[in-house]
Structure formats: C-alpha cells, structure tokens
Amino acid sequence: MTDDIALPTQPLATTHLLRRKRTSAVFAPDGETRAVIAAALGLLDLPAFRMEGQVSPEGKHDLALTGRITARVVQPCSVTLAPVETRIDEPVLRRYLADFQIPEGSEVEIDEDDTTDPLTDTIDLAAVAIEALTLALPLYPRAPGADLGEAVFAPPGAEPLRDTDLRPFAGLAALVGKTGPKTDE
C-alpha cells in the first residue's frame, strides 16, 4: 500500500452503539474514492467495492462488526502485466474489546486472532473495509494462458541446468523397474 495517498475514512462513533441492539454499517465509496483506493493498493481499477454489515454489542462493554465485502478488482497479471479482473466476496469480522491489552516486552507471543482490536471512540468503517479488501486480493493474479515457462541460465560455453537435471532420483524408479527387485533365495 502506498503511504503518500490519503485514504478515505468513515468514522462511526461507538459511545451510543453499546446501548443499542444493532446498527447497520455500510461503506460504499463512489467512483472517485474507489480510484483513490485503487491507486493506494496498486490496482489498475476498482470498478465495484462495498462493505455491508452491522455493529452489535457483545456483553456490556464490547462491540462486534460483522459483514461482507464485495468488490471487482483489476490487477496486473504477475507474468504478462495484462489486466486481470477478480471478483471478491469475503466475510468481515472485527471485535472491539474495552479491556484489550497490547502486549509489552521483548518476547511477545503473537495471537492468531487478528480480528480483535481495542475499543476506541470510533470505528473507521472505511479502514476496516480497505484492510479486508487488501487481505482478500490475489497475491499473484494470472491472465488466462499466462505461463512462467522455464528460465534457463548458463555462463557462455557451459551447458545450462534445467529443472529436470536437478532431480537426481527421478530416474531411479525406472531403473528399479528394468532390473526388477533383488531377492535373496
């Protein structure tokens, strides 16, 4: 993600949410805002992007944001740089805890639960949606028919090594099959 691009925000105040049953949460950026997000994420285009969900109290002091992001993204192919369109439809879950403690010290255990955050005065719906989109993007998108092929390198006058040359036991099964298993009789 590019740091010099100002991403959109959509703060939702949390103070009144703890007293309600459920609050709708929607982030649906317009075309100009989608273009800013696309530029920040290194996308060629972001024709559609939306997060819909709800914020609900969990217990007396905590909140949960549940929902879905849907998007159409266009990325450069990792092999040919041709545009590759991908549809994304992913669930979103975030828990905001009033007693959340950030671990301190030189040796910190990393918790596998990356859905938990401290409860603050606001929840930034745009930040949650953009983070979820970033995590859902294909790492190496490929255009149909794009193939890496085989890279062959060698110094001048030397025979290049190929992938098959680096498998010393590949012919062993065929060799055993020709001679047959050895038995002691």
Q: In a nutshell, what does this entry contain?
A:
This protein is of the alpha+beta class and 185 residues long.
How large, in whole angstroms, is the Cα Rg?
A: 26 Å
Spatial strand order of the main sheet: 2-3-4-5-6
Helix/strand-derived category reads alpha+beta
The major pleated sheet works out as: 5 strands, mixed
| Termini Cα gap | 69 Å
Residues in helices, as a percent range: 10-25%
- Shape descriptor: elongated
Mean pLDDT: 84
Number of helical stretches of at least 4 residues: 3
- By DSSP, the count of extended strands is 7
Report on the structure:
With 185 residues, the chain is an alpha+beta fold. It has a domain at 11-136. The chain contains 3 helices and 7 strands. It has a 5-stranded mixed sheet, with helices on one face. It has a two-stranded antiparallel ribbon with strand order 1-7. The model has no long low-confidence stretch (mean pLDDT 84).
Keywords:
17% helix; single chain; elongated; alpha+beta; 185 residues; five-stranded mixed beta sheet; 3 helices
Produce the secondary structure layout:
Layout: E1 11-13, E2 23-27, H1 31-41, E3 45-58, E4 62-76, E5 83-97, E6 116-118, E7 122-124, H2 125-136, H3 172-179
